[in-house]
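Below is our example:
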Amino acid sequence: MPRVRDLGLDKHLARWWRLTPGPNNAITDVTDVSVGHYTLIHGDGPLRPGRGPFRTGVTVILPHPGNLYAQKVLAAVHTVNGYGKAMGFEQVRETGVIETPIALTGTLNVPRVADALISLALEKNPHIGIGLPETGRRSYATVNPVVGETNDGFLSDIQGRPIGEREVRAAITAAKSGRVQEGVVGAGTGTSCFGWKGGIGTASRVLPQELGRYTVGVLVQTNFGRPEELVFLGERVGAWLRPPKAGSDPGAGSIGGSVMVVVATNAPLSSRQLGRLARRASFGLARTGSICHADSGDFVIAFTTAYRVLDPPPPHFEEDRTVLVQESRILNGLFLAVVEATEEAVLNSLTTAYTVVGRDNHTRYGFPWKDVVSHFARS
């Protein structure tokens, strides 16, 4: 299925977006970042709670390929609307670092996925909670798994909670840089967007030379929005475009849904500055028509690959870090980058998804991008 930039809308893209994407137009355009998926599509027909059918999965984002507990990254989180089950956010707010892969999944899978991240961290770092005997240094430090979610229960058996350690391991093993698979994959397998089939989407932006050529990449797990709200490249296509009624959720027009946004950059930002960047993702969501409904969980995770925070720290913890001298000027460029990349990532999650039939023959239809292309051709 095509991405937005494959639809032949170059004239409209140039009019709407100002910055240039990276070579893959993906979160993996940020140095060291990789993405992996595990997708579970199993069973058909009536819901049998605990046994399927399943349309779910897990997506992992690795800020770098090394040991994340030993080499943490600076990070920030932002809650737009908190009707969700995100895990690990409070410690990130307090400490400003991420120390595990970031995992996205279906709502009731969250505790099992978090447990898997803890197990994997203990394998690589057996001193967690115990200390380092060779140094005589005791430690009661724990590990903070970061997991985001949206609810895929319309298409999948949500009570079954089939995503655990085996599936998380598989996603991490599959993680790679370069092009990212989008749409019906990983954590986006059973999710929806503006009443259509949604899923995983990604995009990136590169700042111009005078702003340091820093890269911002975004990955989203979309599961939000009412059909009539959709805005596509500034056009209110939701005013006339509706999903077929057959097989659709009768309550689809009244629910808000949720979204996870992961923002990566190689810009040398502090946790405070990353928080400012995370908050700007809301503007990218708004440009697609989202109002972040009262019953939605809308969360943002932002991190930079520019630094490593070592654990355990050196005896004399001193680091020579680059800081932004012209903070406002460069941050304004980064803000625009995250707004545009978030918007495009959402639209990519729509155009790359195909029709999925789930439990009880519930159906989410693939987005009719050809109708949108025809609309733009007439405008």
Observations:
- Residues 4-378 form a domain with the L-amino peptidase D-ALA esterase/amidase fold (CATH 3.60.70.12).
- The two ends are 24 Å apart (CA to CA).
- The chain is about 25% helix and 25% strand.
